[in-house]
Amino acid sequence: MKTVIAGAGAIGAFLGAHLARAGADVVLYARGPHLQAMRERGLRVVTGDGGFHVRPSVTDDLGRIGPVDLVVLAVKAHSLAGLAPRLAPLVGPATIIVSTQNGLPWWYFHEGTGAAAPGGPLHGFHLEAVDPGGVVTRALDPARVVGAIVYFATAVEAPGVIRQSGGSRMLVGEPGGVRSARVGRVAGLFEAAGLRCEITGEIRREIWAKLLGNVAFNPLSVITGATVGELVGHPDGSRVVRAIMGEVEAVARRLDLAPAVSIDERMARASQSGPHRTSMLQDFEAGRPLELDAIVGSVIAVADRLGVPVPSIRAVEACVRMLDERRVLKKDGGSGRDVAG
To answer: Annotated catalytic sites, by residue?
Structure first.
């Protein structure tokens, strides 16, 4: 399968490196110093037992590639609206699109399947934060999508260098739940590259299982600066984590999509993650935009639609937004003045 990794950051470059090492026909789309480093020195994946080095094909010009069999969307959700219209040259009659975005992806609300189907609780619901003005849906037909969930603890350590601190598991599945030939091809590609890629008939339910952790750990890590392991291990921190997870679970249950993993099980898994810094904390410290709308805001929007109270989620979201606004203000040279009181 001719494959393009659209967004060769921590996740995309990790996937692309494995595919390149396995001899797959893959091109990584990247920009800036990361692209230049990969052009000059190749791509290195650093792991606890050493890692590996590859020299994949890389580009910053999507228009020169032509139609491909598979496009893997590996940019952050807030970057997808800008990228999606530029992917048109890659899409042929049978092109498959694999979506790896955190949070609730744009295709989740496509009216043909799941809770968004006619008569479902999300029918007619549009989440502007993940698909502003419908630009993503117009550019990327949801009917082409195979959903994916990745459980990789990765970070861009330096341009051209990806560090993996844990996880090599991913799930893929059709939004409608069928076990199709195309999802088998996608899973086979990643399995052949040495990744644990499981096919699930419940990709929508699995999204909520990942949200249990993401909605809790990502914003709390920004507020506290703590790793996932530290949040789980701290008595007060773990109570807040459990409260947030409970609210996420309540929203999922209202959709009849209660996560197959319990909160206790999710906490136990997180306790084994060691010194993992969430992607949102990495972005915050690097001064990059945060996936707050896709991960946290989307759950609040669905909760409001369903009438499910989520006070803990609202509280941490508000705190992160305030921190992020202060960060932007400082970056722009603004200053606050003390007031009496």
So the answer is: 210
